[in-house]
Amino acid sequence: MKIGILGGGQLARMLALAGYPLGLDFVVLEPAPDACAAPLAGHIQAAYDDPAALEQLAELVDRVTYEFESVPASAVEQLGESLPVYPPANALATARDRHHEKTLFNELGIETAPFAEVHDLAGLKQGVAQLGLPAILKTRTLGYDGKGQQLIHPGDELEAAWQAVGQVPCILEGLVNFDREVSIIAVRSVSGEMAFYPLAENVHRDGILRLSTCLHEDSHQPLAEDYARRMLEHLGYVGVLAIEFFQVGEHLLANEMAPRVHNSGHWTIEGAHTSQFENHLRAVLDLPLGSTQPLGHAAMVNLIGDLPDTKALLGLENVHLHLYGKAPRPDRKIGHVTVREASVDELQARLSNIDNVLQ
Ligand SMILES: Nc1ncnc2c1ncn2[C@@H]1O[C@H](COP(=O)(O)OP(=O)(O)O)[C@@H](O)[C@H]1O
Ligand SMILES: [Mg+2]
Questions:
Q1: Is 160 in the same domain as 32?
Q2: Is 143 in the pocket of ligand 1 (CB under 6 A)?
Q3: 244 lines ligand 1 (CB under 6 A)
Q4: Can you give the CATH number for the domain in which 290 is found?
Q5: Are residues 160 and 307 both part of a single domain?
Q6: Boundaries of each ATP-grasp domain copy (predicted)?
Q7: In this structure, is residue 326 part of a structural domain?
């Protein structure tokens, strides 16, 4: 069985790594010549919306998935004419646009921060009058790792914020004074089997995820699963879906969702019976889903910018290194480490060992 992946970055690479033991082969469609999944897969080097390249991919593979949500809708449409593409096009259309996404959350009874649509400077002024400040202006599409966002404080020039995001369609969102950020990784197969991983608690720095820790028996787990189930069922979803939340007291405010495997689920590689990558493939192939139960107390630390001291990291017990084969560059995710320990205390101690190495 051959799987096509739109995008050839680290998520495609880890999908391939999870798929080989299941006897799967992979072809990635990715314009970058040095894509980090390319050494592990066939590589069609072309734009995502190149009709000839899409035709070639459709001939080579049995089904198609993707590793990012900004895939052109036309690509999914063309591929969908000849073979199954999962997650479904409606999930992609929703998740790529923050306004659609937040509107759907609310329609399904899932709370979000208050938000307003912004088309122009006048709309921004109106949004500010409605929501107050501080607030965050976010581009509707193409934002990631905090890019395409502008925090607006009381007294700030609104025109400058509008310029800073590039004067493109946006949403303005109330700033949430959250207790924690958490995310759920959910998965649904073609025949409708569903599974949910334990919530991860996420710590961001400069808008980029740094640390995800698997939570055990968290009191918010049932609500997060309920919200994720509503979304999976509404979309007739297939594959892994990640939803990020702001936790405020008993409430979970949905921030965004990703119709793909997600950075806050990397801990599952060594920290759960079945990784998110394997379960995504199982779901897409309509195989029975694997157990999402955690193994011990697990966390994931992103490696951002510089290559770490590999020897020092591997000298730490119970630490697993994942380098993506990407050239170091400021603010670039070039790898991660996962760690699994028998207790929360041991996990905390190991995380501070890791911090010391990474400083
Ligand atoms: N409305 C908000 N209130 C408080 N913090 C926010 C808000 N929106 C975003 N953030 C912070 O910025 C991070 C990145 O924003 P997010 O909307 O998830 O965009 P992306 O992950 O696509 O860059 C969030 O994880 C959170 O830490
Ligand atoms: Mg996010």
A1: no
A2: yes
A3: yes
A4: 3.30.470.20
A5: no
A6: 102-285
A7: yes
- 200 lies in the same domain as 267: yes
Q: Residues 83-119: pLDDT tens digits?
A: 999 999 999 999 999 999 999 999 999 999 999 999 9
Substitution site in 255, 264, 304 for ligand 1 pocket (most atoms within 8 Å of beta carbon): 255
pLDDT tens digits, one per residue of 211-241 = 999 999 999 999 999 999 999 999 999 999 9
272 lines ligand 1 (CB under 6 A): no
Q: How many CB atoms lie within 10 A of CB 332?
A: 15
- State in Å: Cα 47 to ligand 2 middle: 25
Expressed as residue numbers, the domain containing 170 is 114-174
d(CA 6, CA 282): 18
Give me Rg for the CA atoms of the chain: 20
Any atom of ligand 1 within 6 Å of the Cβ of 144 = yes
Partners of residue 258 on adjacent β-strands = 242
133 shares its domain with 196: no
Contact assessment for residue 322 and residue 338, using Cβ atoms and an 8 Å cutoff? yes
CATH of the domain at 51: 3.40.50.20
